[in-house]
Design a protein that fits this description.
By secondary structure, the chain is an alpha+beta fold. It has nine helices and 20 strands. Strands 6-7-8-3-9-10 form a six-stranded mixed beta sheet, sandwiched between helices. The structure holds adenosine-5'-triphosphate and magnesium ion. Magnesium ion binds next to helix 1. One of its GO terms (molecular function) is ATP binding.
Length: about 375
């Protein structure tokens, strides 16, 4: 779709933004590979929009440079950058038809024969039959697609999207996430998408940069971030993590053994984000869906070699595909465990004594010097 074959990547080097004494974005190095769907994910106020606006040229960086491909565009005004932005409020021109809304960028550049391009673009966003409508006759999701078409028709090397789905209800949001992903795959240009919704970032992006307080905490594929969080913020912000405060009993031969309230747990040394030292502290993490629950009466049936300890069910919520349990244990208060609803054990009700057990390979280790609650519930606050 884009004429430019090369140079669609975005490179930020040492880019930062301060407002008076406040630093919105700390010096940041970031490369967005050409053709990728890249998400900037973080809670409100962490600097996502500021970063995006610096790429677009709508904000002057305090330090650092912006490259698009090989070209340093730091000093170029927004309209000279091969970049288009779709904002959350994607205000279409209300008096123009959908066709003319999409044609706008071409007409402004003095291009006369726009029909083929506009038709192609409307087809891409599956709105060919709505060409003669006015924006108010379209649903929120359809208007959103017009906004994307209106930006893409300029053949930008990079499309920037700042919470473009924020105004849509949940169901439409989910639909549009898949739709945007399809469009990106089809046109193959680089998308940089800003969102505070971790599920949205994980659904759409090849690579996610998790931002916190003006810094990128971790960058990687969604599964990599989820399975191998390097900080407590990432562990808690992306999904739910159970973090257990433990002491390192042994660290040798690629294996780490820790103790927590008398329980002995094992994890691979390779899954520790910090060097474990015998006698030192370690935060041991495990995701809720990795843990199995056995009623205490069946404790003898659990296979050898698994991490295990006992607890008591404090709460359970049936949510259809799974049941979410909260377990109290001296090892860790308020552990979350998600059990798929395949064969439900009627004994697993609040008050029941249970054994939690999981494969040691599914355990990760984090530096215990961090705030164990970093990133908890920031998602809800900003939703
Ligand atoms: N013009 C400005 N002057 C002073 N501070 C600003 C200015 N613009 C942004 N900030 C501050 O910089 C920080 C980052 O803002 P930014 O808009 O990048 O956040 P964000 O991650 O996009 O948040 P949200 O998810 O709420 O949109 C915020 O604390 C904000 O208050
Ligand atoms: Mg923002």
């Amino acid at each position: 779709m884009t004429d430019k074959k090369a140079g669609g990547d975005v490179r930020l080097t040492g880019i930062s933004k301060t407002y008076g004494s406040f630093t919105a974005v700390h010096p940041l190095d970031l490369t967005v590979p050409e053709g990728s769907f890249f998400a900037l994910l973080g809670a409100s106020g962490c600097g996502k929009t500021t970063t995006l606006r610096m790429i677009a040229g709508l904000e002057d960086p305090t330090t650092g440079s912006v490259f698009l491909g090989d070209k340093d565009v730091t000093d170029l005004p927004p309209y000279k950058r091969p970049v288009n932005t779709v904002f959350q409020s994607y205000a279409l021109f209300p008096h123009l038809t959908i066709y003319e809304n999409v044609a706008f960028g071409l007409r402004r550049r003095g291009i006369r024969s726009v029909k083929k391009q506009v038709d192609d673009m409307l087809e891409l966003v599956q709105l060919g039959d709505k060409a003669k409508h006015k924006p108010h006759q379209l649903s929120g999701g359809q208007q959103q697609r017009v906004a994307v078409a209106r930006a893409l028709i300029n053949h930008p090397q990079v499309l920037l999207l700042d919470e473009p789905l924020g105004a849509l209800d949940l169901k439409l949001r989910r639909q549009m996430q898949l739709e945007l992903k399809r469009i990106q795959t089809e046109v193959g240009i680089t998308f940089v998408h800003v969102t505070h919704d971790q599920e949205e970032a994980m659904t759409m992006a090849d690579t996610v940069a998790v931002m916190n307080g003006g810094r990128v905490e971790q960058l990687g594929a969604p599964s990599e971030l989820y399975e191998n969080p390097q900080t407590t913020f990432v562990a808690n912000f992306l999904g739910t993590s159970n973090l257990i405060e433990a002491e390192v009993a042994e660290a040798a031969g690629g294996q780490v053994v820790v103790t927590a309230a008398g329980a002995k747990l094992r994890l691979p040394a390779a899954r520790c984000a910090t060097q474990p030292r015998t006698g030192g502290k370690l935060l041991v993490g495990v995701r809720p869906e990795k843990i199995s629950l056995a009623h205490a009466d069946d404790a003898g049936d659990i296979a050898d070699g698994r991490n295990r300890f006992t607890g008591k069910i404090a709460d359970s919520s049936f949510i259809g595909v799974s049941t979410q349990f909260v377990i109290d244990s001296p090892v860790c208060p308020e552990l979350e465990v998600y059990v798929q609803n395949i064969e439900r054990d009627p004994r697993l009700v609040p008050g029941a004594e249970v054994v939690l057990h999981w494969n040691p390979e599914h355990t990760f280790g984090l530096d215990a010097a961090q705030d164990i609650d970093a990133g908890v519930e920031t998602v809800e606050e900003t939703a």
